[in-house]
Specification:
Length: about 120
């Protein structure tokens, strides 16, 4: 019996959870959710007393994948840029190969970690 895969979508204060039976199904949910977040309205710069955070430095939304031996996801920046990451506490950005989308990079990274596990 498998526990399946959990996808957690964070969009500002809103959190939604999805379940998928397969890794491929979960990755499809992640891509759909991240594309929706990226298509949304951009963010403005946040001005603090001593520092400014432009939209590209803000994480506007996050889509996380949790499953057997895997913790990874997609961050959507305030300017709509998307990047894949892996890791639970120490997140590491997944480097995209030439011509690869962040979604394909995530699929590659997660599939590789599943083979190694």
């Amino acid at each position: 019996m498998t526990r399946g895969w959990q996808v957690v979508v964070r969009n500002g204060p809103r959190v939604t959870r999805h379940r998928a039976e397969t890794l491929e199904g979960a990755l499809d949910v992640i891509e759909r959710a991240a594309r929706e977040l990226a298509a949304g309205p951009g963010r403005k710069a946040v001005e603090l007393r001593s520092r400014s955070f432009p939209p590209e430095q803000q994480v506007a939304g996050r889509v996380e994948l949790r499953g057997p031996g895997v913790h990874a996801g997609i961050d959507v920046r305030g300017d709509g840029a998307v990047e894949a990451w892996t890791g639970r506490i120490g997140r590491r950005v997944v480097a995209q190969e030439r011509g690869e989308s962040p979604y394909a990079a995530l699929r590659r990274a997660v599939s590789g970690s599943r083979r190694a596990a």
